[in-house]
Amino acid sequence: MNTKSYKSEEKLSSILDLISDPAVIVDGMGTLLDVNKGFEKITRLSKETAIGKNVVEFGFFSEKIINVFRKNLEKRLLDFDIKPYEVKIVTKNGKTTKFEITAKKIDYAGQPAVLAVFRVVARRKHAERELDEYAEKLEALVDEKVREIRENKEKLEKIFSSSPDAIAVADLNAKISECNQAALDTFEYSSKEEVIGKNLLEFIAPTDRQRAIENFAKTMAVQGSVKNVEYTLMAKNGREFLGEISVSPIQDSSGNLACFVAIIKDITERKQLEEKLRASEEKYHSLFTSMAEGVCLHELIYNASGKAVDYVILDANPAYEVITGIRKEEAIGKKASEIYGTYGAPYIDTYSEVAETGESTWFETYFQPLKKHFSISVFSPAKGKFATVLTDVTERKQLEETLRESEEKFRAISTSALDAIILVDDEGKFAYWNPAAEKMFGYTSEEILKLNVADAIDALAPLQYREFFSKFLKEPAEATAQFQGTTISLSALKKDGTEIPVELSVSLLKLNDKIHLLGLVRDVSERKKAEETLRISEKTYRELINGMNDTVWVIDFDGSFIDVNDAAVKVLGYSREELLSMGIQSIDKYLSQKEVEDLISNLPSKGIQIFETEHTTKDGRNIPVEISSSLVTYQGKKKAILSSARDITERKQLQAELAEYSMRLEALVEERTTELKQAQAKLIQSERMAAIGELASMVGHDLRNPNSHQERRLLPEKERRTEPKRKRKRNAYCH
Description:
Strand content: 25-35%
CATH superfamily of the largest domain: PAS domain
Strand order of the largest sheet: 2-1-5-4-3
Number of strands: 25
CATH architecture of the largest domain: 2-Layer Sandwich
Distance between the termini: 128 Å
Largest sheet: 5 strands, antiparallel
CATH class of the largest domain: Alpha Beta
Number of helices: 27
CATH topology of the largest domain: Beta-Lactamase
Structural class: alpha+beta
Oligomer: single chain
């Protein structure tokens, strides 16, 4: 047990024993958690015997009272305000005693409980009467004893021996010369020798001693009696208690002051009774003035034939003014027919019957003049008189109407809901089963509502969850308190025996003064399949990226890494945990935050963005890479950027070598081109010279044979085309 909780219980138990009336602490089921000595005394049961048992087991209450007690107990645990009420209890000795029960909700050992005090009604009234009688008798006795002391020493000795009050004789210096047995008992001394010779002031507590000295000096000065002065007194062992001292001077035969007689009374019990009486009076006065209900006292008015025709208002409390809007001063002394402006006195038949028979009644009504709904309790304090206790229930009536509308809305919503909505009452029986539940489980509402607890568990719960379901059906309130506000993942059975994964949410609500368990059940079969598909997809994704030689990572939109592959860890030299705490700028020192933001914002919604950059490893090496980035949905939840970085060191080297080779090739081509141009120029020059020689030969031939040229022109076109190419070429050059 928690030490703090144990000390709290121990302290509560000690406080409980300070209550003189029987008092108990019970839990919500009526089981006794603790009792005080007053309970043990009145029931003759020890605390050990009583604790742990239910109050109904002892047979103290009638069946009717048990029902009232349980109902009020439930209401108090739900923070309803319950007025003190009277019950009759039969104790073990067969005696019937009337008690007034006053109770309050408390916290006991971390759980809600109720502290109930049983006050004996007859004893309280009897004590009040005895207190008044005792005060009157005591005062008379003191006066009588003072007179007797003056008249006769022998009578003083008799008073000493028989007086219930402590009596001490002290000299003029306040030293005690004589005392009675009551004085020894009061101050807890065993013999007179211990007391005689002590100063009377020693028996007064230090806090009141100076006041006592001053009062003693005044008594000596005026030589008059001082009666009933209250002091805090002190017993032999230092125990302090309240006392009342009356001091009378004693004169000798010469009329001189000889000594003092002090009568001392322990008024602790009387003070407690006075305090209880005062508290009781204040309580009832406060109850009348501070009650939320309007209380009004009336007296009937009869006609000549003795029939009650009206009633006069005698008194009313402040709540009556608030509820009715009628001032007390305007109502007292007036007839009801005048005050309420009705034709005849309202409810005169009911009120007159209560005033005549003394039998209380209760009814609810809508009072048109005030346009309010009232709950009215009527009782008769005396024949011909009656009192009404008014409660404005207009708001409650409106709430009932709102509740009715809410129930209609609930039924409409639950009927169209996709989730199963189930209500279980405080006895573990199904109270509601919506159409979605019928569809989900395969049972109709009629089938499920007639099942008992055991059958319902067998029908709906797989073997591994039967004990869990049993808690909700057998003890719905207790089980719900444990899981309220959470979603429970488990599985359930359909009518055909199929086991389906479900999510269950539970809460408590109050319907028709009964606590109900509300369960919302969602079939998550499709979601589980989707999650499994996603899990497989994630696994495939993980295996895929970890099997790649290229560095791969997933980047959030702020540029931080949210996932990396094994190649990234190997290539960059950082651990996975280090990389996941870093961002893209940590490995690309040439990339500014603005450039990171631009790269992300310019990323195409479809397709791939490719660019080259350099990455710096943990050991400071720079690696040229080609980045390929695209938008992806990460883990099925959020948008992110998937990037791969390929090491292009070899490609860069090949590109450099190719560039160098290209430059050398260009130089060689240029050199060869120059040589070819020179050779071509020489060839052209040579061909020109040859052509000129041939032309000269042809001209000479034509000059020698003038008809040969014309003959050639007369040749057919086909024959001319078949002339040797070389000859045609020469001709071309000639032209």
